[in-house]
């Protein structure tokens, strides 16, 4: 009986410490920096962007039809906002054992095929996705730099139509970034991310 109790206690402590190491950001939380491998083989961190006013961090992938549907829109976000101080940072967190199509090699091929104009990083350990609290692809986190701190100002979807860009009536990410550029409050700080579930390693 004592042995069973000890095992249960050990499992409980492991669960507690494991969950404590994950942050799952909420709006207005401070996000921490990271360093992940880009498709060019170099490692990228947010600190590399010393002139950035913030970031559009998007968890996405190769295989998910929702992510594929948003690729052109993500390219446009980079075109529109990188020069204004809010570059796109795309991160692929999927476990390649479950989804071989999301391997680093396939990321390189997809980025070349679509002519991605933004960093496309591999979250091999899935630690960054877990710390952000990302659950889907695509899942967006708009960060605003304040006194060298990165504050989460928006979490959720890119816009309100996952199928056709021409039918979009609310551009959540653009509205958030536009507000931040004007030093205004983000009009809608959180929406539901619509997409494929992130494929976690077992």
- Anisotropy-based shape: globular
| Helix coverage percent | 25-40%
Corresponding CATH architecture: 3-Layer(aba) Sandwich
Number of helices: 5
| CATH class categorisation | Alpha Beta
Average pLDDT number: 91
Q: Would you report the number of β strands?
A: 10
Uncertain residue segments: 1-7, 9-22
CATH topology: Glutaredoxin
What do we call the CATH homologous superfamily?
A: Glutaredoxin
Structural Rg? 18 Å
Structural class: alpha+beta
Number of structural domains: 1
Order of helices and strands: HEEEEHEHEHEEEHE
How are the strands of the biggest sheet laid out side by side?
A: 1-9-8-4-5-6-2-3
What share of residues are in beta strands? 15-25%
What is the makeup of the main sheet?
8 strands, mixed
Q: In words, what does this structure look like?
A:
This protein is 31% helix and 21% strand. The strands form two sheets. An eight-stranded mixed β-sheet has the order 1-9-8-4-5-6-2-3. It has a single domain, classed as Glutaredoxin. α3 (104-114) links the parallel β5 and β6. It contains five helices and ten strands, in the order αββββαβαβαβββαβ. It is globular and about 45 Å long. With 202 residues, it is of the alpha+beta class.
């Amino acid at each position: 009986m004592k042995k069973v109790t000890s095992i249960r206690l050990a499992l409980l402590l492991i669960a507690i410490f494991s969950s404590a190491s994950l942050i799952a950001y909420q709006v207005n939380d401070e996000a921490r920096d990271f360093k992940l491998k880009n498709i060019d083989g170099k490692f990228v961190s947010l600190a590399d962007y010393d002139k950035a006013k913030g970031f559009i961090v998007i968890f996405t992938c190769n295989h998910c039809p929702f992510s594929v549907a948003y690729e052109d829109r993500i390219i446009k976000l980079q075109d529109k906002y990188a020069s204004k101080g809010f570059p796109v940072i795309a991160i692929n967190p999927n476990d390649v054992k479950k989804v071989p199509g999301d391997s680093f090699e396939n990321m390189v091929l997809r980025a070349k095929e679509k002519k991605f104009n933004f960093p496309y990083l591999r979250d091999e350990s899935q630690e960054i996705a877990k710390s952000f609290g990302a659950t889907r692809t695509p899942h967006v986190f708009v960060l605003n730099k304040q006194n060298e701190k990165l504050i989460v100002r928006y979490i959720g979807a890119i816009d309100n139509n996952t199928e056709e860009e021409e039918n979009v009536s609310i551009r959540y990410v653009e509205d958030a970034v536009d507000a931040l550029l004007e030093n205004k409050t983000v009009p809608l700080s959180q929406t539901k991310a619509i997409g494929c579930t992130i494929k976690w390693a077992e």
